[in-house]
């Protein structure tokens, strides 16, 4: 994270004290050199899980950031692919990397699409939405899809309560709550606000039929359960 290519501690501090949009505008030029970018292993596992359901027509990457999701949409979709994000800085980086894609700057809680896409994906974005905001996000994706369209995104298994990772993520969420209680504008980024059962309920309420498949390429936990699952929400 603190390599010459990545952001400095000072830059990360300035970002954390900004709004979500401004923070990502600032981080955009160095974002792909941070651990915040979705790992290629997750992208590859998602592509492998989606391939049997394709090929697809037109594809949408929701909260595209610097466009990492475009790497799997291109081989899966036969039509145009589009990335949508509200950060102009992130979209500028994505456009430079994928000049053949289409890009839309918009708040994904009010997506400006209707019945245009056969596949929508999203990576690492749910933590930027409070639970009360997820219904609007999922309703917008539902509208953006054609009938029988698919919305897919990976979701990690919760770490065991006895693990260091569990307490690290809990500590991060608590620190973020304190930060947002005493500092404006808020920076919404939480790790514990989108468990699978809550996400499934919100997707079902939006009209989707929801299933999941294990991302076995990501390995298994000590109890044998998968470290990650791919949520498949179908517009029926």
TrEMBL record:
<dbReference type="Pfam" id="PF13649">
    <property type="entry name" value="Methyltransf_25"/>
</dbReference>
<feature type="domain" description="Methyltransferase">
    <location>
        <begin position="60"/>
        <end position="149"/>
    </location>
</feature>
<dbReference type="GO" id="GO:0008168">
    <property type="term" value="F:methyltransferase activity"/>
</dbReference>
<dbReference type="GO" id="GO:0032259">
    <property type="term" value="P:methylation"/>
</dbReference>
<protein>
    <submittedName>
        <fullName>Methyltransferase</fullName>
    </submittedName>
</protein>
<dbReference type="InterPro" id="IPR041698">
    <property type="entry name" value="Methyltransf_25"/>
</dbReference>
<keyword id="KW-0489">Methyltransferase</keyword>
<keyword id="KW-0808">Transferase</keyword>
<dbReference type="InterPro" id="IPR029063">
    <property type="entry name" value="SAM-dependent_MTases_sf"/>
</dbReference>
């Amino acid at each position: 994270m603190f390599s010459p290519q990545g952001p400095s501690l000072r830059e990360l501090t300035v970002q954390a004290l900004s709004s979500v949009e401004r923070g990502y505008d600032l981080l955009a030029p160095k974002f792909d050199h941070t651990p915040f970018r979705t790992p290629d292993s997750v992208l590859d596992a998602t592509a492998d899980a989606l391939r049997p359901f394709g090929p697809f027509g037109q594809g949408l990457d929701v909260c595209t950031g610097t466009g990492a999701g475009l790497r799997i949409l291109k081989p899966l979709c036969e039509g145009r692919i589009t990335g949508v994000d509200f950060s102009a800085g992130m979209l500028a980086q994505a456009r430079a990397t994928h000049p053949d894609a289409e890009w839309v700057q918009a708040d994904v809680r009010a997506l400006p699409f209707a019945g245009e896409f056969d596949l929508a994906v999203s990576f690492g974005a749910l933590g930027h939405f409070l639970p009360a905001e997820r219904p609007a996000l999922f309703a917008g994706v539902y509208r953006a899809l054609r009938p029988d369209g698919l919305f897919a995104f990976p979701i990690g298994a919760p770490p065991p309560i006895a693990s260091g990772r569990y307490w690290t993520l809990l500590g991060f969420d608590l620190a973020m709550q304190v930060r947002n209680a005493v500092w404006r504008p808020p920076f919404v980024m939480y790790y514990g606000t989108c468990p699978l059962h809550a996400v499934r309920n919100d997707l079902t309420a939006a009209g989707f039929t929801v299933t999941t498949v294990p991302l076995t390429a990501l390995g298994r936990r000590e109890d044998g359960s998968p470290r990650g699952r791919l949520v498949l929400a179908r517009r029926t």
